[in-house]
Specification:
By secondary structure, chain A is of the alpha+beta class. Chain A has helices spanning about 15-25, 65-75, 135-145, 165-170, 185-190, 200-210, 215-225, 235-240, 250-264; strands spanning about 30-40, 50-55, 95, 100, 115-120, 125-130, 130-135. Chain B has a domain at about 45-150: Up-down Bundle (3 helical TM bundles of succinate and fumarate reductases). The longest helix of chain B is centred in the last third of the chain and has 29 residues, at about 95-120. The chains are: A alpha+beta (about 260), B mainly alpha (about 160). Chains A and B meet through β2, α3, α5 and α9 of A and α1 and α3 of B. The complex binds iron/sulfur cluster (SF4) and FE2/S2 (inorganic) cluster. Iron/sulfur cluster binds near residues 177, 181, 241 and 243 of chain A.
């Protein structure tokens, strides 16, 4: 598909290094930035296009603030998801300068604002409009690993006790906010959306290694599938992308190891 | 496509603005997950293939490097290789076994690697199927031919 780029207003000239230096020292000095957004509206045009927006902002604001400013002051048709604006809900994962990040956790000064900042929808899921993608296949993979406590026997009358060590075994993977940044940064997923993807495996890991849970065997069996963990090529894109700093690739490797040691 | 813009609102000049069914235009990725994806597999084939890649890879490092050093570096290098040299080596069961193991491991390792590449990149099921048929045919042919040669090699052939 062609990706025409729209250039209009004069390019931001010098690299506003003064503004960036000021940002590092806490002072406020406005800079002019170009935000280049990949827009797509299937009701109007079959192709996605790049559209540039010029803004004068404090480099310490977040990319989400910049997008909000564009929507509120320049173009109300710009469509994207956001909710909490504080890195908790996981709804505003997008591809910023070619890397998956949460717009609400990324500061303008950290994404080379001297150059146009490119913003695209996350890859590998159907784009519905502008930055909004169809998350259904992503959540289907999540559901398929049974992300809930599975136990046998009677309910205990008190809470299920767990030692600190047992908690640490899976603590890292409890931090997931299901933003899909990892899964949509995975080249295997880009080429074959039937792969479970890192996020589903992270959430399976969270229960497989939980000492209170008894469904590990079933989940391992599911991930032993053709589209399961064995498709992982240890590219580490997922670990790089995760806004919660979860060691995603490590979690996937631990599931692989559990599968191998379970069989031999 | 010529697009003019003012940089913001309604910047895109639409060449073909008659709205049709939007779903006709959605940017779809190849092979999305559906409710039917993710059935359990009852075999450990993928796991065994994965383990085989790791183990055969380690063994092949020694076999192939040893092979290259013996053939191309020691004893005058590549110039020494002749029919007599090969015949001399294959007189020993040790070198027969080495070459046989190298042949099988390298072919299966390579074929399995190609299989994952096909699984990753071939989008349509029929394309995948025929690429795999081609791959299996080539692999079986090469492995069988090589095995046959190693075992039926006749040093006195004229
Ligand atoms: S593992 Fe990290 S990147 Fe992946 S969905 Fe969870 S929070 Fe997002
Ligand atoms: S808006 Fe909730 S995570 Fe960014």
């Amino acid at each position: 598909m062609s990706t025409p780029t729209i250039e209009d207003a004069p390019q931001a000239g010098n690299p506003h290094s003064a503004g960036l230096d000021a940002a590092e020292s806490g002072k406020v000095e406005l800079i002019t930035i170009t935000v280049r957004i990949r827009r797509f509206n299937p009701e109007e045009h079959p192709d996605a296009v790049w559209v540039d927006y010029q803004l004068t902002v404090d480099p310490k604001i977040r990319v989400l603030d910049a997008i909000n400013t564009i929507k509120w002051e320049q173009d109300g048709t710009l469509t994207y998801r956001r909710s909490c604006a504080h890195g908790v809900c996981g709804s505003d994962a997008m591809r910023i300068n070619g890397k998956n990040r949460l717009a609400c956790k990324t500061l303008i000064k950290d994404v080379s604002p001297e150059k146009p900042i490119t913003i695209e929808p996350i890859k590998g899921l159907t784009v519905l409009k502008d930055l909004v993608v169809d998350m259904d296949p992503f959540f289907q993979a999540y559901r398929d690993v049974m992300p809930f406590l599975i136990t046998t026997g009677n309910e205990p009358t008190r809470e299920r006790i767990q030692s600190e060590e047992d908690v640490q075994r899976f603590e890292d993977t409890t931090k997931c906010i299901l933003c899909a940044a990892c899964t949509t940064s995975c080249p295997v997923f880009w080429n074959d959306g039937q792969y479970f993807g890192p996020a589903a495996i992270v959430n399976a890991h969270r229960f497989i290694f939980d000492s209170r849970d008894e469904g590990a065997e079933q989940r391992l069996e599911i991930l032993n599938d053709r589209d399961g963990v064995w498709r992982c090529r240890t590219t580490f894109n997922c670990t790089d992308a995760c806004p919660r700093g979860i060691e995603v690739t490590k979690a996937i490797q631990e599931v692989k190891r559990a599968l191998v040691t379970r069989r031999f | 496509m010529a697009i003019e813009t003012t940089g913001s609102v309604s910047g895109v000049e639409l060449t073909n603005a008659a709205p049709t069914d939007p779903s006709a235009f959605l940017i779809e990725p190849p092979r999305a997950r559906t409710k039917r994806t993710g059935r359990k597999s009852r075999t450990n084939f993928e796991m065994l293939a994965w383990l085989f890649m790791r183990l055969s890879g380690v063994v092949l490092v020694f076999l192939v490097l040893g092979h290259l050093i013996i053939q191309l570096v020691l004893d005058g290098g590549v110039t020494k290789i002749s029919f007599a040299f090969v015949a001399g080596r294959w007189a020993s069961p040790f070198w027969q076994g080495w070459d046989l193991l190298m042949l099988w491991l390298a072919m299966l390792h390579g074929a399995n690697g190609m299989r994952t590449v096909i699984n990753d990149y071939a989008e349509r099921d029929t394309t995948r199927f025929w690429l795999k048929v081609l791959l299996v045919t080539a692999t079986v042919f090469t492995v069988l031919l090589g095995t046959l040669v190693i075992f039926t090699f006749d040093p006195n052939i004229s």
